[in-house]
Amino acid sequence: MQRRTVPAVLAVLAASGLAVTAGCSAGSSGAGESPGAGASVSASPGGGTAAQTSPAAEKTPPAKGTVKVVRTVAEGLDTPWGLAPLPEGGLLVASRDEGTITRVDEKTGGKTELGEVPGVSAAGEGGLLGLALSPDYASDHMVYAYFTSVSDNRIVRMLYDAKRPAGDQLGAPDTVFKGIPKGMIHNGGRIAFGPDGMLYAGTGESGDRGLAQDKKSLGGKILRLTPEGEPAAGNPFPDSPVYSYGHRNVQGLAWDSQQRLFASEFGQDTWDELNAIAPGGDYGWPTAEGKSGDPKFQNPIAQWHTDDASPSGIAYAEGSIWMAGLKGQRLWRVPLNGTAASAAPQAFLKGEYGRLRTVVSAGGDKLWVTTSNTDGRGDPKKGDDRILEIQVS
User: N or C of the chain: less Cβ packing under 10 Å?
Assistant: First the structure.
C-alpha cells in the first residue's frame, strides 16, 4: 500500500458553482434557550457537497429547539478528544495527552483501556485526536486515529481485538496518511467517514497562516481520502487529497440527512464559523475571518464571537447542526434549511459543564457530548472529564 505525503496539485477547478453570494446577517441577544449573543446567521448557503436535494423537499426544523441532559454516561476521563460509538455497543474514547484509547460501557460507565497508540507526541494542542471506525468495521474491526507525532500529524489504522487482554487490544498501527503539518497550535484532528465511504480529515495550519491558501500544503484544509489513504476519486484538484482550503483550524465534520458536509472552524480574535462545504471551495483564511464581501470566498452559514464558541466537534440531529463550544462552554444549535441556517443559532448548557469538545450522534434525537476541562485550559471539577447523553429537538 502506498503511503501518501504531500502530493502535487496540478490544476484548479473552474470557478463555476463555487462562488457564493454574501448573505445578509442578523445577530440576536440572549443565552440559555434563546438565540445566543454574538451569533449571526447567513441567509444564503455557503455551498455543499455534490449530493444535494431541493430545500423545498426538506422539513425545516423549528426556530427554537430543546436540550435535556439525560444522564452522565462516564466520568474520570483524561483529556478526551475523539469519540467513536461501536455498532456492538460501547464508546471508544481517545485521550489526547495519554495517547490511549478506552472503551466505555455506555450502560454502566465502566472503562476498559484498549491500549496506547505508539508514536503519539502530545504537546500543546497536539496528541491523540480524532477517531473513526472503518466503513467495513463489521468485518475488519479497524479503528482509524489521527494523531500528532514527533514530525507531523498523521492518520493510522489499527485492528481492535476485544478478545485480547485489556491494555493489549490494539494491533500495530498501519500508517494510512502522513505529512500533515504539526504545531503547538492548530493541529485540526477530526476524522470521519462520509456517506460516500471516503475518509475526511480536518486539518489546521499549525500556526503558519500561509499554508491555508497553499493548495500544495495539507495544512488548513479538509482532506478527502480513500480508506487506504489515496486521494479520493472526484476530488476537485487532480491527484490531490485537498477537498476544501482556506481554513484556520477545522475540528468538526458532519453530514446532514441529504449527505451535505458541514464543518466548524476556529477563528482568531473575531469570528468562529460553521461552514457548508463546497468541493474546491476557498474559505478565506487568512484574508477573511467570518463573512467576507469578496465573492471568491465561501461565507459561513453562521458565525460567533470567539468568546461564545471556539468550536470543536459537531453532529447532525433533528434537522440541526449541534456544535460544541470550548471557550464558550455551551452547546450550539443551528437549524438548517438546505445549506443555509434557517434561524439564529441557539445556545444551551451555558457554563453548566465547562468546556465541550466532541458531539456525536447516538441515533435519533440523542447525542453523546464530551467535556474538555482537563485539557490545560479548563477548570476541572470533581468527575471531569465526562461523557453526557443528551436528548435534543
Answer: N
Tens of pLDDT along 51-98? 344 444 689 999 999 999 999 999 999 999 999 999 999 999 999 999
C-alpha span between 103 and 193 (Å, rounded)? 20
Other Cβ atoms less than 10 A from the Cβ of 374: the count is: 21
**DSSP β-bridge partners for residue 271:** 305
Distance from C-alpha of 350 to C-alpha of 133, rounded to nearest angstrom: 31
Measured in residues, the chain has a length of 393
The Cα–Cα gap between 299 and 321 comes to 17
60/99 Cα distance (integer angstroms)? 41
SS3 211: helix
pLDDT digit string, tens, across residues 246-300 = 999 999 999 999 999 999 999 999 999 999 999 999 999 999 999 999 999 999 9
Q: What percent of the chain has pLDDT over 70?
A: 86
Q: Which helix (H) or strand (E) holds 72?
A: strand 67-74
Cα–Cα distance for residue pair 276/272, rounded to 1 Å: 14
Using CA atoms, how far apart are residues 174 and 171, in angstroms rounded to an integer? 9
State which H helix or E strand residue 140 sits in: helix 137-140
Taking CA atoms, 63 is separated from 35, 37, 319, 320, in Å, by: 9, 16, 11, 10
Rg (alpha carbons) of the chain, rounded to whole number: 19
